[in-house]
Specification:
This protein is mostly helical. Helices cover about 55% and strands about 0% of the residues. It has a domain of about 30 residues.
Length: about 90
């Protein structure tokens, strides 16, 4: 992939780090959204609304387990990743 020459690159705004969501908040928000999805799928299966929702149960559970791993947390804690979504 070609890189942008320094004279053509746009400078970052002074408050770019303040405007971007913190990586510390990205992972918990993702886990929370997946947990809500998991509960919704479980309710759909339990009440017989949509039996296909049973596929979402292991998928959401696997993603929650993956995001909960220390190695993934370390990825978001790297200094060069702070202030931007990776």
């Amino acid at each position: 992939m070609a890189t942008i020459p320094p004279d053509r690159a746009r400078p970052a705004p002074a408050d770019a780090a303040a405007a971007a969501p913190s990586p510390a908040g990205v992972r918990p928000a993702g886990v929370t959204a997946l947990a809500v999805q998991l509960l919704g799928d479980a309710a759909n299966v339990a009440f017989g609304v949509d039996r296909r929702a049973v596929v979402g149960l292991p998928v959401a559970a696997a993603l929650i387990l993956y995001l909960s791993r220390p190695r993934v947390g370390a990825y978001f804690d790297e200094p060069e990743r702070r202030g931007r979504i990776a």
